[in-house]
Amino acid sequence: MTDTILDTDILSEIFKERNVAVLSHALAYVRDHNRLTFTSVSVSEMLLGLYVKEATQQIKKATAFLKSHEELVPSSEDYWLAAEINAALRRAGRPIGDADPLIAACAINRDMVLATGNTRHYQFVIDVGFKLQIENWRV
User: Fold this and answer.
1) How many CB atoms are closer than 10 A to CB 72?
2) Which of 75, 80, 102 is nearest to 7 (CA)?
3) Strand, coil or helix: what is 115?
4) Which member of 14, 38, 60, 104 has the lowest number of beta carbons within 10 Å of its beta carbon?
């Protein structure tokens, strides 16, 4: 199985243990790699929702879960590429926010697949000329 970075939606679904297809992909991945990999961008997005709800117990559970896997911190090169991706998307009239181009840049710069349920969204990155590999873990 190819080295993969999880998008925030997939990371959150694994944590919530609700989607059977996502959990199946995650279990297979962990069997091959001994851990899940995600960016600190996704960590921030996931924890933000829990902090807003003041979900103390879920925050503790999420923190333990996240610390048991691999968190990639974006590098300077990732931010530079994210700016380029973001600009190309805006010029094409397909902005997708600031977090997703940074997650995409992390995957591209490391030649990793991005596991997401939001393939339509990330297809825009591919459509504007970036070599992003995406895989839908919801199917």
Assistant:
1) 20
2) 102
3) strand
4) 60
CATH number of 4-134: 3.40.50.1010
Under 8 Å between Cβ of 134 and 23: no
Cα 113–chain centre separation? 10
Among candidates 128, 102, 92, which has minimal Cα distance to 41? 102
- Tokens 């959990």 identify what position? 23
Domain boundaries, the chain: 4-134
* Pairwise CA distance, residues 77 & 20, whole Å: 35
CA distances for 41 relative to 18, 71, 116, angstroms = 22, 9, 14
What the block records as the tokens of 86 is 């973001």
Whats the size of the chain, residue-wise? 139
8-66 per-position pLDDT tens digit: 999 999 999 989 999 999 999 999 999 999 999 999 999 999 999 999 999 999 999 99
